[in-house]
Amino acid sequence: MQKIIIQNHSDADQRLDKFLKKFLPNAPLGAIYKMLRTGKIKVNDKKKEQTYRLAENDEIFIFLTDEEIQNFQKISETPKKNITKPRLEILYQDDDLLVINKPAGLNVHPGDHKSTEISLIELVHDLLGKKYNSLTFKPSLVHRIDRDTSGCILIALKKNVLENLLTQLQNHSIEKIYHTIVIGKMPKPRGTIDQKLLRKESARDEAKVIVSDEGQRAVTHYSTIREISRSEGIFSLLECRIETGRTHQIRVHLSYYNCPILGDKAYGDKKMNSYQSRNNRISRQLLHAYSLTFIHPTTKKKFSITAPYWPDMKHFLEQ
Fold it and tell me: Mean pLDDT for the chain?
C-alpha cells in the first residue's frame, strides 16, 4: 500500500483519473477506473469518482503491492546518443518561467519513446533537476518551433503558470516575432499574407504543408528590415508576426510569394541553398524566433524578451 499526500499546488486542482494516469503512466485507463470502483484506490479513506478534483492535503491510498506500483510507473526509454549535451543559453529565469535561446538542429520535444536524440525539454529537466517537479508535473513547453529554427522558447515551471500561458496562447495574446533572411524581395516593403494552409498527411518528406482553399486560415504580417545585395543575388531581412500558429506557416507563406527562406530544405531554392552551404556554411533555414511578448502570469505586467541571432545568421548579415 502506498499513501500519497497532495502537497504541491501543481498536483492539486486536477481530476483524480488525470492525476493517476500521470502518476501511473503504464496503467491502462480501464485498470485505473476499475481500481477506483473496487476501492483499490481511495481518497481520504473514501471511494471517489474519477471526476473528483483533488485539493491540497488530500490523501490518496493505493492498495497495491510495491511491485505492482513500480510496474505501472515503469516507462521504457531508448538511451540517448548525444554524449556531449549542448549548453543552454538562458535568456531569462524566475520562479515561474524560463526563456531559452534555442539553437538550430535541436528538437524542442522528443519525437517518440524510440528517439535517440536528446531534446530541448530533456536538457531543461537535466539542468533544473527536480527543483520544480511535483508528483505529476515537470517544467513544460508553452509552444514549439521547428528543429532547424532558432530563438525564443518559453517554458513554464509550474502547472498554474502553464495553464495561464496556454490560455494566452490560445487567445492569440502572446505576440511572437520572427526574423528571417529570404531570397529576393517581397512585392511590398510591408504587408499581410492571408492564405489558408493544408497539411498533406500523405507527404513523405518535410514539405507537408501547402497553400490551399481547403486548409485552415493562416495570417502572417511582414515588414522588410533591410535588403541585402550580394554577388550571388538579392536577399531580404524580414520581420514576421504571426496571428495563427500553423505548421511551417512562415516558411510556406514566404515560399508562396517566391521569397523562400534561405537554407530551407523543404520549401526553398535548392540551387541557392547548395551555393550557400558550400560558400557560407548555411546548413539550415535562417528563421529565428526573435521575440516574445505576453502578460507575466504572476506579476500581471507586460513582459517582453528578445533572443540574439546565432552565428550563422549573424555572419551572413555582417558580410
Answer: 92
- Tell me 5's DSSP state: E
Residue 304, Cβ density class (10 Å: 0-12 exposed, 13-18 middle, ≥19 buried): exposed
Fold designation for 172-285: Pseudouridine synthase (3.30.2350)
Tell me the H-state helices in 157-214: 159-170
Residues 45 and 34 sit within 8 Å (Cβ to Cβ):
no
Asked if the 77-170 domain carries CATH number 3.30.2350.10, the reply is yes
Element holding 272 (H helix, E strand): helix 270-280
Contact status, residue 174 vs residue 188, Cβ threshold 8 Å: no
- Residues 22, 51: Cα–Cα separation, whole Å: 15
The Cα 211–Cα 257 span in angstroms is 11
Query: What's the pTM value of the predicted model, to 2 decimals?
Result: 0.83
For the chain, residues classed under CATH 3.10.290.10 are 2-73
Q: Does domain 2-73 have CATH number 3.10.450.330?
A: no
**Cα 167 to Cα 181: distance, rounded to the nearest angstrom:** 31
User: Residue 156 has what DSSP assignment?
Assistant: E
Task: Provide the grid cell at 236.
Answer: 531580404
Q: What is the pLDDT of residue 9?
A: 81
SS3 46: strand
Which residue type sits at 140? S
Q: What is the SS3 assignment for 125?
A: helix
Chain position carrying cell 536524440: 117
Confidence of residue 84 (pLDDT cuts 50, 70, 90): low
pLDDT tens digits, one per residue of 30-73: 999 999 999 999 999 999 999 999 999 999 999 999 899 988 98
Active site residues: 146
From the number of C-beta atoms within 10 Å of its C-beta (0-12, 13-18, 19+), residue 29 rates as: exposed
